[in-house]
Every structure is written in C-alpha cells, then in structure tokens.
Amino acid sequence: MRYMIINKADADSEAGKFPGPEVVEGVGKVVEDLSKAGVLLFAEGVHRSALGARVKVDAGRRTVTDGPFAETKELIGGVMVVEVRSRDEAVEWAARLAEALGSEVEVRRVVEEADFAPDSELYGEPTNG
Predict the structure, then answer these.
(1) Rounded to two decimals, what is the model's pTM?
(2) Which distant-in-sequence residues (6+ apart) come within 8 Å of 85 by Cβ?
(3) Which part of the chain is the YCII-related domain (predicted)?
C-alpha cells in the first residue's frame, strides 16, 4: 500500500526561511532510513506559496489566484510517498518525520485502481489497511 506523508508549511517556510541544521539533519536521517528500508518512493519539499497559484474551473471559466495564501496551517510544505505493508507502518514512519520536523504531519493512503472495486473499503467502512 502506498501512503502519502504530508508536512505542513509554517510561518518560517512561508517567509522563505530555510529550516535549521537540526531539522535538515533529522529529516535527512528519516529519508535515509526510509531509503535503506526500501519503502521510499519519493520525498520532496515545495517552495513557499508566494511562488505558487491556485487554479479553479467553474462552468468552463478558469480562475487563477497567485500566492501567497494566508492560511499557512492548510498549506503543504512537503510530501513523501512510501510503500508499506500497513497503515500502522506508515504512521510509524510519519511519527519519525514529525519528530524530526517538530510539527504535525498527515498520513493519507493513496487511492489505487483496486479501491474502485465494489467490495473495496472505499465503498464501505474505513479499515486500518
């Protein structure tokens, strides 16, 4: 199963400040351990929202809103995608990343083709899978 681990932007990252050496080292160690464990598919940070845009299409009309975006708690600072055996394993890796970052991260299962089958958990009660 693939899971996305999302770390949130904060005021410093939105101001374009690079994280301190302890955070860089801690995250680097988590990425190295994920790679050694053979579960890391990719890990990337993203630039501050001032360099981004939000795109909306409504009734064929496109609206593009340039950043920055005010609500930093809803902004993504970076993502990792891991392929693991269970949600619990993804949560363990996410906990290591959260500790290295000193902040909360979010874990979300990536939708796969099999999830669209009528008997999949997508159509029923969520499981820990």
Answers:
(1) 0.84
(2) 1
(3) 1-112
